[in-house]
């Protein structure tokens, strides 16, 4: 187990390096530049070309691309992700505050998804063909087809219409006011979790259907166990490994969804930061946020892989 | 490829014989086979067939957007926020009403649909083709190639698809070709995994071993045996991802990082929906529900296609 953990951890570094390099070169072709964003936020032409060029030189934007890359790499290796030219503060500081919101939203959505998906999938499987099963399947098919961002918009508008509730302008960080924080995050998390639940419960259903035909389930029933015990103790654990795989894979979809929810619900996370940074042409910040989002997913995949190895000895010895 | 036409000629002389003799047979024969296949598919999967027909009609309608649309998508034709079924001063029908600058919503839906469906079809075609090539080559060559390619795929799987697409559009611009490339590229890693898994089973087939034994080159084995036998999983993967691509395009454009106005797309038509909902709820409901219905149809069709093409799944459910 220890060597497995070490091997998995060692793979993180090259992954981050390659990702960072890809993102750097992808974003380096960015049309327009940050200088416009700093000097002339309104797009005014009152600033002389000379002045803009001086600023570009100071920021190192006129150097050859490989020099910029080398400088960026060296800086990043020392843990300095650069300065947000617009916010005038280090990118890393901004990331560390914003990532909490995105991670909290994504994890909450994941929990909601699993809490919804597992019972729905089981119910659907054991009442196969019944009206309940049909209903659940129609529900999941709809959940998969509705675009998350649109559901988000409609939910906000409905809440506004009916309860006169609107997303708060002021955000409450989790360490200051956990209850207020939860109340802000729960609605976007429900919207997100709902979609993933639709996705996951379909797999729970088909895995349960498969497992329920196994010999050991028949044996368990034959020896007179309560149906509930058969399902929870014998069927569910055996159906769970593929479900964990899918849950792991759908996390990156949840992160995607979180990016959009933040914009719609006005949450100060990585997603809304990304959007603002793009429109301000704040290069280092865009790059930093993209890396931050990748790191969130990477950490999650790592946790899942390790859980796997812990659950299934075949993996850690291969 | 030499000999391939000959092979298909000898394989189904019957089909050629039945296809009206005297006409340029192959085109008609192919047409018949397609229609016949579609009919058999619809009989076995009524919902999937209906969904497929709906999508086909929709595709034709949006392709003819220039002819059908009563107005221009970028001109205001009446006062703003008119409700559905109102009329312009000249008495022309505004089926869905107007948006925040008085443009006809119906016209914009048609043109937006063209954008959305083109992206929805082209992006998976591009991305999954690339993924298929990478996956098949990686599986067939194995060893170091496979190891390196798979580690690289791991890297790209770490990046959420939407974020990947965002980074590409930010870098290359907010136009339709770029959005197609962006969404396509974001599908490459995951689809190459699926295609690789399939190709790994093909590699062990006897006809591959036999072909190797008579000294066929590797490139030829990939082209003649592995690629043709991967068509079924390719089609399934494609159908499943069309829905994803449509929603991703909508989400990107909604955020202002996809197709940029004035070109309409179902996604960027929703950008202002939140702002003007009070005045004209149709701005929010029409494009959103349309996306939902189209994606539902695509998913139904894709599921049926998977059932039809994957014999292992037959009879389950």
General description of the model:
The complex is a heterodimer of chains A (318) and B (317). With 318 residues, chain A is mostly helical. Chain A has helices at residues 2-28, 34-39, 49-58, 65-77, 91-126, 131-145, 148-163, 178-212, 215-222, 227-265, 270-279, 283-311, 313-317; strands spanning 83-84, 89-90. Chain A has a two-stranded antiparallel ribbon. In chain A, a hairpin with a 4-residue loop joins strand 1 and strand 2. With 317 residues, chain B is an all-alpha fold. Chain B is 71% helix and 1% strand. Chain B is built from 14 helices and two strands, in the order H-H-H-H-H-E-E-H-H-H-H-H-H-H-H-H. In chain B, helix 8 packs across helix 9 (176-203). The model of chain B is unreliable at 1-22 and 313-317 (pLDDT under 50). The chains are: A mainly alpha (318), B mainly alpha (317). At the A-B interface, helix 1, helix 6, helix 7, helix 10 and helix 11 of A face helix 7, helix 8, helix 12 and helix 14 of B.
Low-confidence stretches of chain A: none
Overall body shape of chain B: elongated
**What fraction strand of chain B?**
under 5%
Strand order of the largest sheet of chain A: 1-2
Tell me the span between the first and last alpha carbons of chain A.
Answer: 11 Å
Largest sheet of chain B: 2 strands, antiparallel
User: Overall pLDDT of chain B, averaged?
Assistant: 79
What is the alpha-carbon Rg of chain B in Å?
Answer: 23 Å
The helix content of chain A, as a percent range, equals over 70%
Q: Summarize the biggest pleated sheet of chain A.
A: 2 strands, antiparallel
Number of helices of chain B: 14
Q: Could you tell me which chain pair has the largest interface and how many residues each side has?
A: A-B, 47 and 41 residues
Oligomeric composition of the shown chains: heterodimer
> What is the overall pLDDT average of chain A?
79
Low-confidence stretches of chain B: 1-22, 313-317
CA radius of gyration of chain A: 24 Å
Please provide the ordered H/E string of secondary-structure elements of chain A: HHHHEEHHHHHHHHH
Helix content of chain B: over 70%
Q: What is the number of helical segments of chain A per DSSP (H or I, 4+ residues)? A: 13
Strand content of chain A: under 5%
Spatial strand sequence of the major β-sheet of chain B: 1-2
């Amino acid at each position: 187990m220890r060597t497995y953990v070490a091997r998995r951890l060692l793979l993180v570094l090259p992954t981050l390096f390659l990702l960072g390099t890809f993102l750097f070169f992808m974003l380096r072709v960015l049309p327009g530049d940050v200088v416009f964003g700093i000097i002339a936020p309104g797009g005014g032409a009152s600033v002389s070309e000379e002045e803009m060029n001086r600023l570009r030189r100071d920021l190192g934007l006129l150097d050859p691309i490989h020099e910029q890359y080398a400088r960026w790499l060296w800086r990043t290796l020392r843990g300095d992700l650069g300065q947000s030219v617009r916010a005038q503060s280090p990118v890393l500081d901004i990331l560390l505050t914003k990532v909490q919101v995105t991670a909290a939203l994504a994890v909450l959505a994941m929990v909601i998804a699993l809490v919804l998906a597992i019972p729905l999938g089981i119910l659907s499987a054991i009442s196969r063909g019944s009206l309940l099963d049909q209903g659940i399947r129609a529900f999941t098919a709809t959940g998969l087809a509705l675009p998350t961002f649109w559901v988000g918009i409609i939910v906000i508008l409905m809440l506004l219409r009916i309860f006169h509730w609107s997303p708060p302008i002021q955000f409450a960080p989790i360490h200051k006011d956990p209850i207020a924080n939860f109340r802000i995050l729960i609605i976007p998390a429900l919207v997100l979790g709902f979609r993933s639940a639709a996705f996951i419960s379909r797999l729970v259903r088909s895995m349960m259907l498969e497992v329920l035909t196994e010999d050991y389930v028949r044996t368990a029933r034959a020896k007179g166990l309560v149906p509930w015990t058969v399902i929870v103790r014998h069927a569910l654990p055996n159906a769970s490994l593929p479900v964990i795989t899918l849950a792991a894979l759908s996390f990156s979809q949840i992160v995607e969804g979180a990016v959009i929810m933040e914009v719609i619900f006005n949450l100060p996370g990585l997603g809304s930061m990304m959007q603002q940074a793009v429109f301000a042409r704040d290069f280092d910040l865009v790059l930093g946020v993209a890396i931050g989002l990748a790191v969130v997913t990477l950490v999650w995949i790592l946790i899942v892989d390790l859980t796997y190895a812990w659950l299934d000895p075949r993996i850690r010895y291969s | 490829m030499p000999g391939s036409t000959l092979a298909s000629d000898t394989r189904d002389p019957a089909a050629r014989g039945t296809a009206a003799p005297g006409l340029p047979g192959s085109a008609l024969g192919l047409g018949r086979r397609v229609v016949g296949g579609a009919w058999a598919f619809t009989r076995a999967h009524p919902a999937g067939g209906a969904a497929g027909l709906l999508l086909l009609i929709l595709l034709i309608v949006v392709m003819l957007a220039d002819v059908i649309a009563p107005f221009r998508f970028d001109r205001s034709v009446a006062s703003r926020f008119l409700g559905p079924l109102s009329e312009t001063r000249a008495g022309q029908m505004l089926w869905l009403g107007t948006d925040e600058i008085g443009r006809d919503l119906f016209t914009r839906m048609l043109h937006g649909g063209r954008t959305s469906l083109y992206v929805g079809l082209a992006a998976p075609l591009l991305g999954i083709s690339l993924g298929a090539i990478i996956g098949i080559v990686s599986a067939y060559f194995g060893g170091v190639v496979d190891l390196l390619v798979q580690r690289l795929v791991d890297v790209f799987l770490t990046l959420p698809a939407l974020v990947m697409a965002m980074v590409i559009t930010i870098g290359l611009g907010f136009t339709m070709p770029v959005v197609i490339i962006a969404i396509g590229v974001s599908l490459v890693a995951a689809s190459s995994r699926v295609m690789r898994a399939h190709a790994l089973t093909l590699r062990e087939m006897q006809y591959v071993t036999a072909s190797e034994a008579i000294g066929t080159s590797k490139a030829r084995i990939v082209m003649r045996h592995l690629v043709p036998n991967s068509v079924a999983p390719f089609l399934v993967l494609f159908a499943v991802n069309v829905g994803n691509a449509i929603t991703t395009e909508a989400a990107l454009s909604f955020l202002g990082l996809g197709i940029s106005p004035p070109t309409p797309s179902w996604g960027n038509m929703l950008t202002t929906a939140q702002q003007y909902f009070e005045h004209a709820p149709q701005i929010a409901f029409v494009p959103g529900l349309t996306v939902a219905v189209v994606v539902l149809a695509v998913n139904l069709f894709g599921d049926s296609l998977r059932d039809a093409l994957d014999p292992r799944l037959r009879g389950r459910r």
